[in-house]
């Protein structure tokens, strides 16, 4: 698969790399890590990173401005994105050829070449594997800038190596990446330092979550609460994991009210919850997924279904 991807890359002079909306470090890491690897090893090619910048990624990097005409005859690569609706910048369809590189379940196998490995900790780990193939067969070399991005993606998607998706290979890849010269401490601070108002909201979540006897929990964050804490719905993504620290917790849902919808963020320490996300038009990983509800009644149905799932798992 990696040989097919590299053969294809060699055929195109413009390559545009996309990732998913609501980006996280692995989205940026895999997208921009790949961009810098390709730029470095094919200086004659034009490599562009598409998608809208999100300020939560300011510490990490920035995408490029991509014009409509850039897509003409271009190779498009989408990383870390399970389904087409979540591709940031829907012009991804307008390129000449499409490659998907991802580690989420391959329910939507879009693209002319589909490289999906659900055993990988992150898309960034897959980009590193692509790199090792390029290194061994094409003489590719890595840069510190690319290594920093891939490392950030791995750290982000494994929760600093805590999640079960972390394998021996993940540690080995991280071990290779830290050989390059980048400021790990500054990167970690960028990833994990939080605004005090966000920490105040985290305090609110710890004070107000409800958990049943089977370890199913939820907390509702209404628009009024967001206003009170001066936090946006997007900001709350950084707090989703925090309830996992609660003893006895099996799975939890955080419901964040926006203007026309309620964002549903599901996390689990065991019971499979992406099936639940799918019931409500969403998706994601077995233990970390998301969906959208359009009323508090619908949100309450998610809470009830989560309780059922945790009861069945007990
Ligand atoms: Mn990912």
TrEMBL record:
Record keywords, A-Z: Hydrolase
Cytoplasm as UniProt keyword: no
Top EC class, one word: hydrolase
Signal sequence, start to end: none
Any one Pfam family match given in the protein's UniProt record, by short name: DHHA1
EC number of this enzyme: 3.1.3.7
SUPFAM superfamilies on file: DHH phosphoesterases
GO molecular function annotations of the record: 3'(2'),5'-bisphosphate nucleotidase activity
Residues in DDH domain copies: 15-154
Stretches assigned to the DHHA1 domain: 228-311
Source species, domain of life: Bacteria
Keyword Nucleotide-binding: no
InterPro entries xrefs: DDH_dom, DHH_sf, DHHA1_dom, Oligoribo/pAp-PDE_c-di-AMP_PDE
Name assigned to this protein: Bifunctional oligoribonuclease/PAP phosphatase NrnA
């Amino acid at each position: 698969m990696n040989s097919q991807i590299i053969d294809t890359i060699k055929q195109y002079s413009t390559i545009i790399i996309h990732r998913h909306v609501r980006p996280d470090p692995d989205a940026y890491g895999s997208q921009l890590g790949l961009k810098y690897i390709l730029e470095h090893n094919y200086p004659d090619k034009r490599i562009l990173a598409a998608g809208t910048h999100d300020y939560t990624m300011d510490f990490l990097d920035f995408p490029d401005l991509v014009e409509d005409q850039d897509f003409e005859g271009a190779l498009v690569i989408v990383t870390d994105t399970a389904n087409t609706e979540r591709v940031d910048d829907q012009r991804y369809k307008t390129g000449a050829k499409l490659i998907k590189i991802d580690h989420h379940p391959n329910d939507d196998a879009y693209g002319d070449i589909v490289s999906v490995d659900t055993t990988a900790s992150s898309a960034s780990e897959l980009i590193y594997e692509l790199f090792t193939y390029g290194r061994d067969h094409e003489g590719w070399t890595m840069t510190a800038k690319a290594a920093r991005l891939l490392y950030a993606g791995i750290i982000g998607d494994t929760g600093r190596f805590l999640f079960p998706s972390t394998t021996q290979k993940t540690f080995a890849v991280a071990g290779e990446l830290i050989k390059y010269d980048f400021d790990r401490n500054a990167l970690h601070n960028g990833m994990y330092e939080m605004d005090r108002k966000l920490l105040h909201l985290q305090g609110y979540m710890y004070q107000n979550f409800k958990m049943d006897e089977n370890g199913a929990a939820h907390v509702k964050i209404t628009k009024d609460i967001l206003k009170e804490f001066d936090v946006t719905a997007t900001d709350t993504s950084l707090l989703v994991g925090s309830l996992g620290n609660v003893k006895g917790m099996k799975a939890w849902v955080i419901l964040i009210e926006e203007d026309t919808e309620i964002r549903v963020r599901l996390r689990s320490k065991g019971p499979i919850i992406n099936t639940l996300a799918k019931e409500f038009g969403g998706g994601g990983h077995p233990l970390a997924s998301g969906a959208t509800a359009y009323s508090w009644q619908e949100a309450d149905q998610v809470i009830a279904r989560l309780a059922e799932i945790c009861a069945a798992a007990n």
